[in-house]
Amino acid sequence: MRPALLVMMLLARHATAAESTPAETPQPPAPAPTETPQPATAPAASSATPPPPVREPVPAVPSSLDFDLLGTPPPPTVNVDADAMRRRRTLLSLHQGFGIALATLMAGSIVTGQLNYSDRFSGSSTGRWERPHTLLTFSTLLTFAGTGALAALAPVPLDQESRGFDRVRLHEAGMIGATLGMISEGTLGILTAHNEGRLGQARLADAHMAIGYTTLAFMLTALGALVF
Question: pTM of the full predicted structure?
Answer without folding.
Answer: 0.60
